[in-house]
Amino acid sequence: MSKEITADQTARYQQALATDPTAKVLERAVSHQGILATSADYASEADMTPVFSIDLDTGKVANQKQSGRCWMFAALNTMRHHLADRFNLSDFELSQNYTNFWDKFEKANYFYENVLATADQPTSSRKVAFLMTTPQQDGGQWDMLCAIIEKYGIVPKSVMPETYNSSKSSELNSTLNLKLRKDAIILRQLVADKASDDDIATAKDKMLGEVYRLLSFSLGEPVSEFDFEYRDDDKNYHIDKGLTPKTFYDKYVGWDLSDYVSIINAPTDDKPYNHTYTVEMLGNVVSGRQVKHLNVSMKDFKALAIKQLQAGQSVWFGCDVGQSSERQKGIMDTKYYDKDALFNIDFSTTKAERLDYGESLMTHAMVLTGVDLVDGQPTKWKVENSWGEKVGTKGYFVMSDAWMDEYCYQVVVNKQFLPDNLKTIQASEKPTILAPWDPMGALA
C-alpha cells in the first residue's frame, strides 16, 4: 500500500536541520553559488597538471560548435593525425560536413527500413515508440562512421566546408525528424493496406529523393570529384587533381578500417567479459558495417589503449563526459566534486549500477593523445576534445585514471594490439544482440 508523507515526518526533518550548526551556512553557500561550485575540491587541479610521459603532438583541436557530431570529429581527428604525420600537414582538417551529409541520408533509409520491419506492431509497442522518439540525430558510433567511409570515402574540409546547419544542427534535425515521422505514417499505412512491394519501394524512393534535396539545401551537395591543393608545413606547394572521395581516402589515409575494432567496458551481469555484442536497430548504412563491441575488463581496456599510444597512434574513446567534469578548466576527475561531503549523503554507485539504472551511459566521444605512466601504471590521460580552444588547455583536457575507470565505456584500437584469445573472439564470435535501448547502443 502506498504511504503518504506525514506531518510528523516533515517535523522531524525540519528539527534535524534546525539542530545542525552548519545547515544555514551551507544553505546560503549552495543556494547562492550552486551545487557544483560549492562542492568543488580545487586540490584536484594540482593532480591534473597537463604533463604526460607519453604525449602525442596532434596539433590544434577542432570545434563541433552547436552540433552533436563528437563521434565523427573524434574519428576523423584520429585519421587527421595520421595524415598530418605522413604528409607534413599539421594545420588541416577532414570534412566533417561531408560525412555528416551521408550519415543523415543513410540514417533516413535505415529508419525507413526499421519502420517497415515493425509495421505490424502497434504504435504503443516499445520498439515503435523507440524509433519515433528520435528518428535520427547527430550522434553515432565508430562503426557507423566506418560504414560511411567505406561507402562514400572522405574529403578535405576545404572541399566541403561547414555550413550554418552543420555547425548549428537543431533546425535541420527537427525538420528532418518531422519529415521522417510523416513518412513513417505513410509507410505504415501502405503496409496496413497490403500495398505491393513495388508500391512501397516507389514511395520510399520518393521520400529519399526529398531527403536528399533537404540535406543538399541545408548542408550543400557532396562533391564527387575534386582537386586537392595545399602547402605543407615546409611551405612546399602540392596539387593532386581528379580525386574522388574514395581515392582521396585510399591515398591520404589508407587505413584498412576492418583492422580497427570497438572495445567496451560494461560490467553488467547481462554482458560477460570476453564476448561480443551488437545492438538491435543500431546503425546507419543498410547492409553496411555492423556495430560490434568486444566487452573486456577495465584492466584489459586500458592496456589496449596504452599499447596503441605507445605505438604513436591516438585512440578514439567514448565516455559520459558530464560526470565529475569541469568543462572550462578541462578536468575530468572523480575527486573534483565532493557532493557526499557537502550534503552528508552517500551518492556512491558502481559502474554497473549506473548503467543498469539509467544514471550513466556514453554521451561524448573524444581522442586519447597521451598518458602519464608512473611505475608502469597510468595516473592520468591526455584528451583531445572537439569543443574549440577556449576550454581546457587550448582544447585539451586531463582525465584522471580513476575517472576513466568509472565513466569510460569504449575505445577503438587496432586489432594487432589484442592478445590472441581476444583477437579470436572478436573475429569469430557471433555477437549477442542487445535491445535497442541498451546503454551500449548510446550515440555519442
Q: Largest sheet, if any?
A: 12 strands, mixed
Radius of gyration: 24 Å
Give the rounded overall mean pLDDT: 97
User: Helix proportion of residues, in percent?
Assistant: 40-55%
Could you tell me how far the N terminus lies from the C terminus, measured between alpha carbons in angstroms? 41 Å
Output the structural class: alpha+beta
E-strand count: 14
Oligomeric category: single chain
**Count of helix runs:** 17
Shape: globular
What proportion of the residues form beta strands (DSSP E)? 15-25%
Model regions low in confidence, pLDDT < 50 over at least 5 residues: none
Short description:
Helix content is 43%, strand content 16%.
Could you walk me through the main structural features you see in this protein, from its secondary elements to its overall organization?
- This protein is α+β, with helices and mostly antiparallel strands and 444 residues long.
- Helix content is 43%, strand content 16%.
- The chain has helices at residues 7-18, 23-33, 35-39, 43-47, 70-87, 96-117, 126-133, 142-152, 164-167, 170-192, 197-219, 245-252, 298-310, 339-343, 351-356, 401-407, 420-428; strands at 54-55, 226-231, 237-243, 260-264, 275-279, 293-295, 315-319, 325-326, 331-332, 364-374, 377-384, 396-400, 408-414, 432-434.
- Helix 6 packs across helix 8 (142-152), helix 6 packs parallel to helix 10 (170-192) and helix 6 packs antiparallel against helix 11.
- The model has no long low-confidence stretch (mean pLDDT 97).
